[in-house]
Amino acid sequence: MKKYIALAALLAFISCEQFKEVADVQPVTIITTNINVTSENVPSDIPRPENFSVKFINYNDKIEVVKTTDANGNVSVNDLIPGIYSITATGEIGYKGFNYIYNGTLANQTITQTGKTLDLSVNVSKTGGLVMKEIYFNGSSGYYFKDQFYEIYNNGEETQYADGLCIGTLLPLTASTTTYNWIVPDGHPENYAYFGVIWQVPLSGEGRNYPINPGESFIIAQNALDHNDPNRNPGKSIDLSGAEFETHIYNQTVNPDNPDAVNMELRFGTVYGTQWLASVFGCAYCIFYPDGEIDQNTWVQPQGSSTQAKEIPLDWIVDGVELVNNESKITQKRMPVAIDAGATYTGATYNGKSVSRKIKETKEDGRVLYWDTNNSSEDFQVNAAALVRRNGANIPSWNYWAN
Amino acid sequence: MMKKYIIASIIALVCIPAARAQVKEVAHPSQLEFNKVGALWFHTDNAAGMAVTPLADYNQLSLSYNMEEGKYKLQHQGDSQGELVVNTNGALTLGKTRLWGDFTYTNTTLKNTKFNTTLLDPTYDMPYYVADPNTSWWKIQTYDMSVKAATPFLWDRIALGATVNYYSKAGAKQIDPRTSSYKYGITVIPSLVVKLTNNHMLGLSGTYSNVFERTVPVNSNSQQDQSVYLMKGLGNWSTRVVGSISGLKTFYYKQNLVGGALQYGYHGNFHILAEGKYNYRVTDVIQTPSKPERMGTTVRNSYGGNVQALFGDEYTSKIYADAYVNHTDGIEYVQELDDTYEVQQWVTIAKFIRSRYEFTAASLGYDFFAGKDNGYDWKIGVKGIYSNREDEYILPHSAFSAENLYGELNGAKTFTNQTCVILLKANLGYNYNLGGEFLYNGADANSQVVKLMYERDLAVMTANYLMAGLGVNASFPISGKVAMYLGAEAQYLRNVTEASRIQAPRRVFAGLTLGFNF
Description:
The complex is a heterodimer of chains A (403) and B (518). Chain A has 403 residues and is mainly beta. Chain A contains two helices and 28 strands. In chain A, the strands form seven sheets. A seven-stranded mixed β-sheet of chain A has the order 19-18-17-11-10-25-28. In chain A, strands 13, 15, 20, 21, 23 and 24 form a six-stranded antiparallel β-sheet that branches. In chain A, β3 and β4 form a beta hairpin. Chain A is globular and about 75 Å long. Chain B has one domain. Chain B has four helices and 21 strands. Chain B starts with a helix and ends with a strand.
């Protein structure tokens, strides 16, 4: 009998707690938020745009509100629904022949009370340089994943060199609620990105073996092979035999080394199998030029975990793209917002889809410039099928083996 | 452990009457029905009232197969549904205590359902669930047990009673994204009746109910993630995925209900019984037990009442009416993930009522029985049902409403010969829609949830329809102690609204029963 009395008391207690938690909940109302866009980190000799476009995105409620600041960088948004917002400010101005892109982000801001004022600091970058133009990561029909590739494009006005360029993926491997609290020697974990794997284009001599002219792109393939070959995934995949680089580790009958493609060098992390398989659920990719050699024997770890990562200063990073499983994971970003304020996704695995940058403009000579606002939610599109050198990107002159 | 005791109690209740039945006569179909017509308190929350209007002893065991078929249905229902039902119930006096017990096993197959991935019992006022547009079967098994007990009047003044119900359900959706779901519910309603005078009775009952549902989303094809809608009410949703390492995890529904009811009864030359009741229910929806993330909460206030009046002897009339309002608030949470080492938990920053669901219903009915042998020779009845659903999503504002008035005429006739007793029933009804609309101002007006679910459900819920049914129950005495009966029933629903008739033309309901009274 005592047992039943105790059970009844427990149930009554539980229900009381449950009832108390909802006792004073009020109906939702519209709230107002003020944004002040600042640019104190931008050199004073670069002009500011007249105003900034400020976008509020609430992924949970699928709400998107866009406003324009006044000349002082202020804007008041008076029709927000309480929630968690990613707020981006963008602006663009031409100066001395260059386009300067202003970009700033406040990620995952909880806005639940009216009257809040947020400062949004923007940075500036010159359009141009190397960008990750197309990423094909989620494999093709038949659970075939050896056809992953990354296309890197010269989106600028000057010749760039692929020599020594690194590509890698950040930890955690996939976007999830698992997060790491990294411990770094200088006590400023916010200044780094944490790589699980780093591959590097071989660097020798003057570092000018692999020039990439404006409008040219190069391909880093998992395997620089024709994946439509009858022995691989015929009719469902793509031909990567013309890729400039491959992340090859050792020969296998069905995955031989392509003697033409340059083998990338694994600089950090452990890769299992015959080549580099990145997660088909979407990694956070960065390309960067290291300032010196990458020491494979040192790493950092998160608090309470044996996971090892290489910490790379954010100012080394040339470009980054956050890929997540689907829309619901955008709020679980791994990439620092200074590198990529958004995220892109294909929504499924092994469907042959890729993501690529949207065209911003096409020059008179046919050269294409792509969007690069450091916000892949805005800059990227999803393609029904991956394609090498989409939109007519040129092949580097030193690639003699591509068709 | 508790479940075991309840099951043992039910078995005892069902078996003991079987032994005692040797001393009583077999009841025929109309007698069984009339038995419950006169037991006014049996139809309230107050089990102690069985001391005032007791059920006569009876025992019943039946096996039924029921089916539904037709496109006039809500999207989460099956194009066709079949259920196998085993039921036993009975009433008796054990010592001086009046007892009634019921046990039902149901095995249900729903074919071609849509937009319900997780819930065993989807309802209009539970907006927080997972939906997908894939056409799928559901298979569900239910065990449902109830007991009512009432003491005699103690000191000729107070009768005590209690109702206990326990059910458990297990089910699974059969196509990716699929789920396996488990649910139980227990309700306890202690009650008392005070005899003010020999004719005037006052009753009081309190209700406590606890329901728990756990549903685990999973894919059979682990390589193909399935995009799903995480529903939030009135066509609002966010995208989630079933599958992959970051897909949706286990959902929990935790529900508690408390309530109470007051009854007043007059029992003299005629009988009248009125009941007013209120209950308060909170349901929390949580994902992932080890890192709980609140998916929403509903808070329902339900209030209403009913009146029954019974008069006449050889010719008996029963008037009954009830009305109730269910008002449900849907609460959504603004949460942040606290990723501090060794904490890693979702923290609620704010919570708001984002949606409201109000359902009002009222019914009024009259049945006339021409008496015969504790049953009836013939019966005629009429009833009307008013219902109004008004739902609202506050911001961005959306609204859903459907208001209907249903009227029905029904009758039954008993035919007796030397070998059997046949009860023939018929009903004819018409639903008149008084109005309804769906105004959507959310983020995606062209989503499948809006176009293929809400708009189609609205068409069904705002249709005028004709309902006609026939039923027959033939009871054959096997001995002086046992009768076998065969029952068959069919209902035909015909949508007569031009706009929705092609899409949702009809629904057929049919059932066959083989049973024993003893």
